[in-house]
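Re: that chain you flagged

S.,

Sorry for the slow reply, it's been a week of failed gels. I finally had a moment to sit down with the sequence you sent. For the record, here it is as I used it:
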Amino acid sequence: MPFPLELLSHPQAPSTSPLGQEYMINDAGLVSPIYGAGSSSNHSGSSSSSSSSSSAPSPTPVTASGSELEIYLIWDSSVSKAPSGFTTAITDAAQFYVNNFTSSTGKAVVLYIDVGYGEVAGTPLASGALGESESNGYLTNYATVTSALAKDGLTFTASNEPTASQFFITSAQAKTLGLISGTSGGSSSVDGYIGFGSGFSWNTYANPNGSNSGTLSNQYDLQAVAQHELSEVLGRIGMEGATVAGKPTYTILDLFNFAGHGTLELSGKGGYFSIDNGTTHNGVFNNASSYGGDIADWASYTSPTQSGSLPTGAAKTATDSYDAFLAAGGNGVVTTDDLLVDAALGYKFTTAGAALA
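Prediction finished late last night. Pasting the structure tokens below so you have them in one place:
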């Protein structure tokens, strides 16, 4: 049986925003307020696993010509125990995103992302988890998110649009949509955390073109898992009406999860991705109610081809980097469906990204 790409995660660092109270979301979809300095829930740059330690590699700014998006990778001291090639694989995964996407507003956006090995935000990963992410973010409303996305030409006309509900957006999305300063934050006030399991044999070979190779039958593709976790910090998460502070709560991705033409699928039982009100049927989402895993990931419990997101003629070892489950020996690829998902979350294609999509 394949491993889920992530299980549970933990709280994260505080910051301020004109959107108001900041919250965190973990891989279980649980949302909680972020407390100020001195709180037991605070993970800041002074934590024992943070990049302030002398054993941590220096931060890595990842940029690309033609993109206003920068991903600033902050390495925890735990990374010093990672296998050779670890930082290169994570960096190349981040490079893929800045090569192919820019901010929705066209203004500079810097995403500060903390990276750990065997831990996320200073806390050990859940047993059996290949990777985990945590994202800072904000609770807002339907009108705010749809008005921002309308600037990218997206429309929302499903019969069951959750117009009266609150929405969770990640800090990264708030930046690219122009809802907060695109360059706010830093090493002690990050947009999100990603961590990778230390109990696995990793294929650390990587390249920045979105696909990988060379994963042995007993290995897991580190770059694919990094792409998966980074995309969650960028906003690839689903909530589908989960209760937060007593109110049903949704995410931007939920607005593209359809049960059929003109009808959103808002129950956590799968559905499919579409950006034209359900007319075009793209990848199938994971049925978390039946199989566990993440509702925002692709269906992959039975096989890597279950979601239909892999391109025709893909190699037998190919697996979509956004799958809910990953088996050993799979070589990850970011597919066209994945690119369309990322674009729907509030990011614009660069010239290179448009050519891939």
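What I noticed first: Residues 3-347 form one domain.

Talk soon,
D.
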